[in-house]
Amino acid sequence: MALVRVALGARSYDIIIEEGSLDRADAHLAGYARKGRLVVVTDANVAKAQLPRLTASLNRAGIAVAPIILPAGEQTKSWRHLEQLLDQLLALEIERGDHVVALGGGVIGDLVGFAASILKRGCHFIQVPTTLLAQVDSSVGGKTAINAKAGKNLIGSFYQPGLVLIDPSTLDSLPPRETRAGYAEVVKYGLIDDPDFFAWCETDGQRLLDGDGDAREYAIERSVQAKAAIVADDERETSGRRALLNLGHTFGHALEADTGFSDLLLHGEGVAAGMALAFRYSARLGLCPAAEAERVTEHLKKVGLPHDLASAHVKADGAALIAHMLHDKKMAAGTLPFLLARGIGRTFLSKDVVLDDVAAFLDEDRAAAT
Ligand code: NAD
Ligand code: GLY
Prior knowledge:
There is one protein chain. By secondary structure, the protein is an alpha/beta fold. The chain folds into two domains: 2-173, Rossmann fold (3-Layer(aba) Sandwich); 176-369, Dehydroquinate synthase-like - alpha domain (Dehydroquinate synthase-like, alpha domain). The chain is 46% helix and 17% strand. The protein has 14 helices and eleven strands. A seven-stranded mixed sheet has the order 1-2-9-6-5-3-4, with helices on both faces. Helix 7 packs antiparallel against helix 8. It binds nicotinamide-adenine-dinucleotide and glycine (GLY). Residues 137, 141, 143, 242, 245 line the site of glycine. It is found in: Cytoplasm.
Protein backbone atom coordinates (compact mmCIF):
# COMPACT_ATOMS: atom_id res chain seq x y z
CA MET A 1 0.00 0.00 0.00
CA ALA A 2 1.17 3.54 -0.74
CA LEU A 3 -0.17 6.81 0.55
CA VAL A 4 0.30 10.12 -1.26
CA ARG A 5 -0.96 13.38 0.23
CA VAL A 6 -2.21 16.27 -1.92
CA ALA A 7 -1.19 19.25 0.20
CA LEU A 8 -3.78 21.98 -0.29
CA GLY A 9 -4.31 23.41 3.20
CA ALA A 10 -7.90 22.89 4.31
CA ARG A 11 -8.61 21.05 1.04
CA SER A 12 -5.78 18.51 1.46
CA TYR A 13 -6.58 14.84 0.88
CA ASP A 14 -5.04 11.40 0.66
CA ILE A 15 -4.56 9.14 -2.32
CA ILE A 16 -4.48 5.50 -1.24
CA ILE A 17 -3.00 3.01 -3.71
CA GLU A 18 -3.64 -0.56 -2.63
CA GLU A 19 -4.02 -3.69 -4.70
CA GLY A 20 -7.35 -5.31 -3.75
CA SER A 21 -8.59 -2.29 -1.80
CA LEU A 22 -12.01 -2.48 -3.48
CA ASP A 23 -12.58 -5.75 -1.62
CA ARG A 24 -11.65 -3.99 1.62
CA ALA A 25 -13.47 -0.76 0.80
CA ASP A 26 -15.26 -0.79 4.16
CA ALA A 27 -11.91 -0.18 5.89
CA HIS A 28 -11.39 2.98 3.85
CA LEU A 29 -14.94 4.24 3.29
CA ALA A 30 -16.99 3.25 6.36
CA GLY A 31 -16.26 6.60 8.01
CA TYR A 32 -17.91 8.42 5.10
CA ALA A 33 -21.23 6.55 5.27
CA ARG A 34 -23.96 8.71 6.75
CA LYS A 35 -26.88 6.76 8.23
CA GLY A 36 -25.18 3.55 7.12
CA ARG A 37 -25.38 4.33 3.39
CA LEU A 38 -23.13 5.42 0.53
CA VAL A 39 -24.31 6.65 -2.87
CA VAL A 40 -22.07 5.22 -5.60
CA VAL A 41 -22.22 6.67 -9.12
CA THR A 42 -20.78 4.51 -11.86
CA ASP A 43 -21.27 3.56 -15.52
CA ALA A 44 -22.81 0.45 -17.02
CA ASN A 45 -19.48 -1.29 -17.78
CA VAL A 46 -17.98 -0.63 -14.37
CA ALA A 47 -21.27 -1.59 -12.70
CA LYS A 48 -20.84 -5.06 -14.21
CA ALA A 49 -17.11 -5.44 -13.68
CA GLN A 50 -16.32 -3.72 -10.39
CA LEU A 51 -19.42 -2.48 -8.52
CA PRO A 52 -20.19 -5.94 -7.05
CA ARG A 53 -16.77 -5.96 -5.33
CA LEU A 54 -17.34 -2.55 -3.76
CA THR A 55 -20.93 -3.37 -2.76
CA ALA A 56 -19.96 -6.72 -1.20
CA SER A 57 -17.23 -5.19 0.94
CA LEU A 58 -19.44 -2.32 2.12
CA ASN A 59 -22.43 -4.60 2.77
CA ARG A 60 -20.25 -6.90 4.89
CA ALA A 61 -19.65 -3.91 7.15
CA GLY A 62 -23.38 -3.17 7.32
CA ILE A 63 -23.19 -0.25 4.89
CA ALA A 64 -25.92 -0.09 2.23
CA VAL A 65 -25.01 1.00 -1.29
CA ALA A 66 -27.36 3.20 -3.35
CA PRO A 67 -26.03 2.80 -6.90
CA ILE A 68 -26.63 5.28 -9.71
CA ILE A 69 -25.69 3.65 -13.01
CA LEU A 70 -25.12 5.92 -16.02
CA PRO A 71 -24.42 4.98 -19.66
CA ALA A 72 -20.73 4.43 -20.44
CA GLY A 73 -18.94 6.83 -22.76
CA GLU A 74 -17.94 10.44 -23.28
CA GLN A 75 -21.54 11.50 -24.15
CA THR A 76 -22.37 11.05 -20.47
CA LYS A 77 -20.37 14.21 -19.67
CA SER A 78 -23.38 16.26 -20.82
CA TRP A 79 -25.96 18.73 -19.50
CA ARG A 80 -28.62 16.02 -19.84
CA HIS A 81 -26.81 13.47 -17.69
CA LEU A 82 -25.67 16.14 -15.23
CA GLU A 83 -29.29 17.19 -14.72
CA GLN A 84 -30.45 13.59 -14.32
CA LEU A 85 -27.64 12.85 -11.88
CA LEU A 86 -28.40 15.94 -9.78
CA ASP A 87 -32.10 14.99 -9.65
CA GLN A 88 -31.20 11.45 -8.58
CA LEU A 89 -28.84 12.71 -5.87
CA LEU A 90 -31.51 15.10 -4.60
CA ALA A 91 -34.06 12.26 -4.58
CA LEU A 92 -31.60 10.29 -2.44
CA GLU A 93 -31.52 13.28 -0.07
CA ILE A 94 -27.81 13.95 -0.36
CA GLU A 95 -26.78 16.64 2.12
CA ARG A 96 -23.85 19.05 2.00
CA GLY A 97 -21.92 16.97 4.54
CA ASP A 98 -22.33 13.77 2.50
CA HIS A 99 -19.71 12.07 0.33
CA VAL A 100 -20.78 10.75 -3.09
CA VAL A 101 -18.54 7.99 -4.48
CA ALA A 102 -17.44 8.19 -8.15
CA LEU A 103 -16.55 4.65 -9.27
CA GLY A 104 -15.26 4.66 -12.85
CA GLY A 105 -12.99 6.30 -15.37
CA GLY A 106 -12.44 9.96 -16.16
CA VAL A 107 -15.96 10.38 -17.49
CA ILE A 108 -17.62 9.40 -14.21
CA GLY A 109 -14.99 11.20 -12.12
CA ASP A 110 -15.33 14.48 -14.04
CA LEU A 111 -19.14 14.37 -14.06
CA VAL A 112 -19.59 13.39 -10.40
CA GLY A 113 -16.99 15.95 -9.32
CA PHE A 114 -18.85 18.70 -11.15
CA ALA A 115 -22.22 17.57 -9.78
CA ALA A 116 -20.76 17.52 -6.24
CA SER A 117 -19.38 21.03 -6.70
CA ILE A 118 -22.83 22.50 -7.39
CA LEU A 119 -25.23 20.22 -5.49
CA LYS A 120 -26.62 22.30 -2.62
CA ARG A 121 -23.66 24.65 -3.27
CA GLY A 122 -21.23 21.80 -2.76
CA CYS A 123 -21.22 18.35 -1.17
CA HIS A 124 -18.18 16.06 -0.85
CA PHE A 125 -17.06 13.33 -3.23
CA ILE A 126 -14.63 10.44 -3.29
CA GLN A 127 -12.81 9.24 -6.39
CA VAL A 128 -12.49 5.47 -6.89
CA PRO A 129 -10.88 5.47 -10.35
CA THR A 130 -11.03 2.29 -12.43
CA THR A 131 -9.11 3.19 -15.62
CA LEU A 132 -5.36 3.73 -15.77
CA LEU A 133 -5.96 7.25 -17.11
CA ALA A 134 -8.16 8.09 -14.14
CA GLN A 135 -5.79 6.43 -11.64
CA VAL A 136 -2.73 8.37 -12.79
CA ASP A 137 -4.34 11.63 -13.83
CA SER A 138 -8.01 12.62 -13.80
CA SER A 139 -8.96 11.46 -10.28
CA VAL A 140 -6.30 13.70 -8.75
CA GLY A 141 -6.28 17.48 -8.82
CA GLY A 142 -9.94 18.49 -8.81
CA LYS A 143 -10.56 19.40 -12.43
CA THR A 144 -14.22 18.57 -13.02
CA ALA A 145 -16.22 19.15 -16.19
CA ILE A 146 -18.88 18.33 -18.70
CA ASN A 147 -18.68 18.95 -22.44
CA ALA A 148 -20.43 21.79 -24.30
CA LYS A 149 -21.51 22.07 -27.94
CA ALA A 150 -18.54 24.42 -28.38
CA GLY A 151 -16.02 21.88 -27.12
CA LYS A 152 -14.85 19.37 -24.54
CA ASN A 153 -14.55 20.21 -20.83
CA LEU A 154 -15.71 23.80 -21.34
CA ILE A 155 -18.10 23.80 -18.38
CA GLY A 156 -16.69 22.82 -15.03
CA SER A 157 -14.99 23.74 -11.81
CA PHE A 158 -11.92 23.18 -9.70
CA TYR A 159 -13.28 21.05 -6.87
CA GLN A 160 -11.10 18.66 -4.92
CA PRO A 161 -12.25 15.21 -3.80
CA GLY A 162 -12.11 14.22 -0.12
CA LEU A 163 -10.22 10.99 -0.85
CA VAL A 164 -8.89 9.06 -3.84
CA LEU A 165 -8.94 5.28 -3.41
CA ILE A 166 -7.02 3.45 -6.13
CA ASP A 167 -7.21 -0.30 -6.54
CA PRO A 168 -4.88 -1.22 -9.43
CA SER A 169 -6.56 -4.63 -9.70
CA THR A 170 -9.64 -2.94 -11.18
CA LEU A 171 -7.54 -2.66 -14.34
CA ASP A 172 -7.82 -6.45 -14.80
CA SER A 173 -11.24 -5.94 -16.41
CA LEU A 174 -10.27 -2.86 -18.44
CA PRO A 175 -9.91 -3.49 -22.21
CA PRO A 176 -6.17 -3.54 -23.11
CA ARG A 177 -6.62 -0.66 -25.55
CA GLU A 178 -7.95 1.55 -22.72
CA THR A 179 -5.01 0.56 -20.50
CA ARG A 180 -2.58 1.43 -23.29
CA ALA A 181 -4.27 4.80 -23.81
CA GLY A 182 -3.96 5.56 -20.08
CA TYR A 183 -0.31 4.53 -20.23
CA ALA A 184 0.36 7.58 -22.41
CA GLU A 185 -0.39 9.74 -19.36
CA VAL A 186 2.16 7.71 -17.35
CA VAL A 187 4.83 8.32 -20.00
CA LYS A 188 3.85 12.00 -19.89
CA TYR A 189 5.17 12.40 -16.31
CA GLY A 190 8.57 11.11 -17.40
CA LEU A 191 8.66 13.42 -20.37
CA ILE A 192 7.65 16.51 -18.36
CA ASP A 193 10.40 16.52 -15.75
CA ASP A 194 11.47 13.01 -14.77
CA PRO A 195 13.90 11.44 -17.29
CA ASP A 196 14.62 8.51 -14.93
CA PHE A 197 10.92 7.63 -14.96
CA PHE A 198 10.85 7.77 -18.75
CA ALA A 199 13.83 5.39 -18.75
CA TRP A 200 11.83 3.11 -16.41
CA CYS A 201 8.96 3.23 -18.91
CA GLU A 202 11.34 2.14 -21.66
CA THR A 203 12.54 -0.87 -19.67
CA ASP A 204 9.48 -1.78 -17.58
CA GLY A 205 6.44 -0.09 -19.16
CA GLN A 206 5.49 -3.23 -21.07
CA ARG A 207 5.31 -5.17 -17.75
CA LEU A 208 2.70 -2.66 -16.57
CA LEU A 209 0.74 -3.15 -19.80
CA ASP A 210 0.96 -6.93 -19.31
CA GLY A 211 -0.72 -6.54 -15.91
CA ASP A 212 2.29 -7.06 -13.64
CA GLY A 213 1.11 -5.93 -10.19
CA ASP A 214 4.41 -4.47 -8.99
CA ALA A 215 5.01 -2.49 -12.18
CA ARG A 216 1.46 -1.21 -12.15
CA GLU A 217 1.57 -0.07 -8.53
CA TYR A 218 4.99 1.53 -8.96
CA ALA A 219 3.92 3.51 -12.03
CA ILE A 220 0.66 4.65 -10.45
CA GLU A 221 2.41 5.77 -7.26
CA ARG A 222 5.13 7.65 -9.12
CA SER A 223 2.58 9.29 -11.41
CA VAL A 224 0.29 10.48 -8.62
CA GLN A 225 3.28 11.73 -6.62
CA ALA A 226 4.20 13.87 -9.62
CA LYS A 227 0.65 15.07 -10.13
CA ALA A 228 0.08 15.77 -6.41
CA ALA A 229 3.23 17.92 -6.29
CA ILE A 230 2.19 19.93 -9.34
CA VAL A 231 -1.38 20.42 -8.09
CA ALA A 232 -0.17 21.48 -4.64
CA ASP A 233 2.04 24.06 -6.33
CA ASP A 234 -0.43 25.41 -8.90
CA GLU A 235 -3.95 24.19 -8.14
CA ARG A 236 -5.74 26.48 -10.59
CA GLU A 237 -3.18 26.49 -13.40
CA THR A 238 -2.21 30.09 -12.81
CA SER A 239 1.58 29.94 -12.45
CA GLY A 240 2.08 27.79 -15.56
CA ARG A 241 3.38 24.71 -13.71
CA ARG A 242 0.11 22.79 -13.93
CA ALA A 243 -0.10 23.64 -17.62
CA LEU A 244 2.88 21.27 -18.10
CA LEU A 245 0.39 18.44 -17.53
CA ASN A 246 -1.07 19.36 -20.91
CA LEU A 247 2.01 18.08 -22.74
CA GLY A 248 0.84 16.62 -26.05
CA HIS A 249 -2.68 17.98 -25.53
CA THR A 250 -2.66 20.88 -28.02
CA PHE A 251 -1.59 18.59 -30.86
CA GLY A 252 -3.65 15.74 -29.37
CA HIS A 253 -6.81 17.82 -29.11
CA ALA A 254 -6.56 18.71 -32.82
CA LEU A 255 -6.12 15.03 -33.69
CA GLU A 256 -9.10 14.08 -31.53
CA ALA A 257 -11.19 16.84 -33.17
CA ASP A 258 -10.23 15.60 -36.65
CA THR A 259 -11.27 12.06 -35.75
CA GLY A 260 -14.55 13.42 -34.35
CA PHE A 261 -13.75 12.59 -30.68
CA SER A 262 -14.67 9.05 -31.64
CA ASP A 263 -13.42 5.55 -30.88
CA LEU A 264 -11.02 5.97 -33.78
CA LEU A 265 -8.71 7.83 -31.40
CA LEU A 266 -9.08 7.63 -27.61
CA HIS A 267 -8.02 10.65 -25.53
CA GLY A 268 -4.82 8.98 -24.29
CA GLU A 269 -3.98 7.87 -27.83
CA GLY A 270 -4.31 11.47 -29.00
CA VAL A 271 -2.02 12.55 -26.15
CA ALA A 272 0.53 9.89 -27.18
CA ALA A 273 0.66 11.08 -30.80
CA GLY A 274 0.59 14.69 -29.56
CA MET A 275 3.62 14.14 -27.34
CA ALA A 276 5.57 12.52 -30.18
CA LEU A 277 4.68 15.48 -32.42
CA ALA A 278 5.64 18.01 -29.71
CA PHE A 279 9.06 16.36 -29.34
CA ARG A 280 9.67 16.12 -33.10
CA TYR A 281 8.58 19.74 -33.55
CA SER A 282 10.94 20.76 -30.71
CA ALA A 283 13.73 18.89 -32.52
CA ARG A 284 12.86 20.67 -35.78
CA LEU A 285 13.19 24.01 -33.97
CA GLY A 286 16.62 22.92 -32.74
CA LEU A 287 15.46 22.95 -29.12
CA CYS A 288 15.63 19.22 -28.46
CA PRO A 289 18.23 16.68 -29.62
CA ALA A 290 16.76 14.68 -32.52
CA ALA A 291 17.88 11.44 -30.83
CA GLU A 292 15.69 12.20 -27.79
CA ALA A 293 12.65 12.96 -29.95
CA GLU A 294 13.34 9.64 -31.69
CA ARG A 295 13.45 7.81 -28.32
CA VAL A 296 10.00 9.18 -27.48
CA THR A 297 8.57 8.15 -30.84
CA GLU A 298 10.16 4.69 -30.65
CA HIS A 299 8.84 3.96 -27.17
CA LEU A 300 5.28 4.94 -28.04
CA LYS A 301 5.47 2.93 -31.25
CA LYS A 302 6.88 -0.12 -29.43
CA VAL A 303 4.00 -0.27 -26.95
CA GLY A 304 1.46 0.12 -29.75
CA LEU A 305 0.42 3.74 -29.24
CA PRO A 306 -0.14 6.23 -32.08
CA HIS A 307 2.98 8.28 -32.69
CA ASP A 308 2.22 10.22 -35.90
CA LEU A 309 -0.73 11.47 -37.97
CA ALA A 310 -1.18 8.22 -39.89
CA SER A 311 -1.15 5.95 -36.83
CA ALA A 312 -3.63 8.38 -35.20
CA HIS A 313 -5.97 7.91 -38.22
CA VAL A 314 -5.82 11.64 -38.94
CA LYS A 315 -6.57 12.71 -42.51
CA ALA A 316 -6.49 16.51 -42.17
CA ASP A 317 -3.58 18.64 -43.37
CA GLY A 318 -1.55 20.98 -41.17
CA ALA A 319 -3.74 24.03 -41.81
CA ALA A 320 -6.94 22.17 -40.87
CA LEU A 321 -5.32 20.87 -37.69
CA ILE A 322 -4.27 24.39 -36.73
CA ALA A 323 -7.90 25.48 -37.19
CA HIS A 324 -8.90 22.79 -34.66
CA MET A 325 -6.22 24.02 -32.26
CA LEU A 326 -7.58 27.55 -32.44
CA HIS A 327 -10.80 26.27 -30.91
CA ASP A 328 -8.85 24.94 -27.93
CA LYS A 329 -9.87 26.55 -24.63
CA LYS A 330 -6.20 27.01 -23.75
CA MET A 331 -5.94 29.80 -26.27
CA ALA A 332 -5.15 32.97 -24.32
CA ALA A 333 -5.15 36.57 -25.61
CA GLY A 334 -5.04 35.41 -29.22
CA THR A 335 -1.93 33.25 -28.81
CA LEU A 336 -1.76 29.52 -28.53
CA PRO A 337 0.60 28.30 -25.82
CA PHE A 338 2.53 25.18 -26.84
CA LEU A 339 4.37 22.75 -24.64
CA LEU A 340 7.75 22.09 -26.18
CA ALA A 341 10.83 20.28 -24.88
CA ARG A 342 14.55 20.87 -24.61
CA GLY A 343 14.92 17.14 -24.08
CA ILE A 344 13.33 14.23 -22.23
CA GLY A 345 12.21 15.56 -18.83
CA ARG A 346 12.72 19.16 -19.93
CA THR A 347 9.27 20.33 -21.03
CA PHE A 348 8.45 24.04 -21.04
CA LEU A 349 5.62 26.35 -22.06
CA SER A 350 6.29 28.43 -25.16
CA LYS A 351 4.08 31.36 -26.08
CA ASP A 352 5.80 32.35 -29.31
CA VAL A 353 5.16 29.43 -31.58
CA VAL A 354 4.31 30.47 -35.16
CA LEU A 355 1.20 28.59 -36.20
CA ASP A 356 2.03 28.57 -39.94
CA ASP A 357 5.32 26.93 -39.05
CA VAL A 358 3.50 24.25 -37.02
CA ALA A 359 1.20 23.62 -40.00
CA ALA A 360 4.23 23.22 -42.30
CA PHE A 361 5.85 20.86 -39.77
CA LEU A 362 2.72 18.68 -39.62
CA ASP A 363 2.65 18.36 -43.41
CA GLU A 364 6.39 17.58 -43.54
CA ASP A 365 6.09 15.09 -40.68
CA ARG A 366 3.33 13.23 -42.54
CA ALA A 367 5.34 13.21 -45.76
CA ALA A 368 8.47 11.96 -43.95
CA ALA A 369 6.55 9.04 -42.48
CA THR A 370 5.29 7.76 -45.83
P1 NAD B 1 -13.93 6.49 -19.55
O1 NAD B 1 -14.32 6.96 -18.22
O2 NAD B 1 -14.89 6.68 -20.66
O3 NAD B 1 -13.55 4.95 -19.46
C1 NAD B 1 -13.16 4.27 -20.62
C2 NAD B 1 -14.00 3.01 -20.86
O4 NAD B 1 -13.61 2.00 -19.93
C3 NAD B 1 -15.49 3.22 -20.65
O5 NAD B 1 -16.17 2.44 -21.60
C4 NAD B 1 -15.73 2.62 -19.26
O6 NAD B 1 -17.04 2.15 -19.09
C5 NAD B 1 -14.73 1.51 -19.23
N1 NAD B 1 -14.23 1.12 -17.91
C6 NAD B 1 -13.76 1.93 -16.94
N2 NAD B 1 -13.20 1.22 -15.97
C7 NAD B 1 -13.34 -0.08 -16.30
C8 NAD B 1 -12.93 -1.29 -15.70
N3 NAD B 1 -12.20 -1.31 -14.58
N4 NAD B 1 -13.25 -2.45 -16.31
C9 NAD B 1 -13.95 -2.43 -17.50
N5 NAD B 1 -14.31 -1.32 -18.13
C10 NAD B 1 -14.01 -0.15 -17.54
O7 NAD B 1 -12.56 7.14 -20.05
P2 NAD B 1 -11.19 7.55 -19.34
O8 NAD B 1 -10.15 7.33 -20.36
O9 NAD B 1 -11.05 6.94 -17.99
O10 NAD B 1 -11.39 9.11 -19.11
C11 NAD B 1 -11.53 10.00 -20.19
C12 NAD B 1 -12.14 11.27 -19.66
O11 NAD B 1 -11.31 11.82 -18.67
C13 NAD B 1 -12.33 12.35 -20.72
O12 NAD B 1 -13.62 12.88 -20.60
C14 NAD B 1 -11.29 13.40 -20.36
O13 NAD B 1 -11.72 14.71 -20.70
C15 NAD B 1 -11.22 13.22 -18.86
N6 NAD B 1 -9.95 13.67 -18.26
C16 NAD B 1 -10.02 14.46 -17.17
C17 NAD B 1 -8.87 14.88 -16.54
C18 NAD B 1 -8.95 15.71 -15.29
O14 NAD B 1 -7.91 16.19 -14.82
N7 NAD B 1 -10.12 15.87 -14.73
C19 NAD B 1 -7.61 14.47 -17.04
C20 NAD B 1 -7.57 13.65 -18.15
C21 NAD B 1 -8.75 13.24 -18.77
N1 GLY C 1 -4.93 16.60 -16.67
C1 GLY C 1 -4.47 17.93 -16.59
C2 GLY C 1 -4.64 18.55 -15.25
O1 GLY C 1 -5.12 17.93 -14.34
O2 GLY C 1 -4.32 19.70 -15.09
